[in-house]
Design brief:
By secondary structure, this protein is mainly α. The protein is built from 4 helices and no strands. It has a domain of 44 residues.
Length: 120
C-alpha cells in the first residue's frame, strides 16, 4: 500500500467525521431546525459546553483535513521519472522531417481533356 493510499484513506475518514460534527451542531440563528419545531432552546445532551467542544472539533478536523490534503500532494507517486509527453521533457530533442526536394510526378489527365472537348 502506497503512502498516497494511506493519505487518501485518512482524508476520507476525516472528511466523514467533519460532516458528522457539522451536522450535529446546533445552528446559532435557529436555522432550519427552529422552523420544523426544534425551537432551538434545547441543549445537546443538556451540557452548555457541548457547543464549545463541537466548535473546536470542527476547526481541528478542518485544519487536519487541509494538512492531509497538502501532504498527500507531496506523496503522489510520479512514476519512474519517464515523461509521457516530449513537450514536458526538457532533455528531449525532436527532429522535424525535412520537406521533400524531389518533384512530385506530374500526371496528365488526357481523358478529362478529351471529354471536355467533346462536350462542346
Amino acid at each position: 500500500m502506497s503512502t498516497f493510499s494511506i493519505f487518501l484513506a485518512l482524508i476520507v475518514v476525516v472528511a466523514f467525521l467533519l460532516v458528522v460534527v457539522v451536522m450535529v451542531q446546533n445552528p446559532k440563528g435557529g436555522g432550519l431546525s427552529s422552523s420544523f419545531g426544534g425551537g432551538g432552546t434545547q441543549q445537546l445532551g443538556g451540557v452548555k459546553k457541548t457547543t464549545d467542544f463541537l466548535d473546536k472539533s470542527t476547526w481541528a478536523l478542518a485544519t487536519l483535513l487541509l494538512v492531509l490534503i497538502l501532504l498527500s500532494n507531496v506523496a503522489i507517486n510520479t512514476g519512474d521519472g519517464t515523461v509521457d509527453s516530449k513537450a514536458l521533457d526538457p532533455n528531449a530533442t525532436t527532429t522535424q522531417p525535412l520537406p521533400s526536394t524531389t518533384p512530385l510526378p506530374t500526371t496528365t489527365n488526357e481523358a478529362a481533356t478529351t471529354t471536355s472537348d467533346s462536350l462542346q
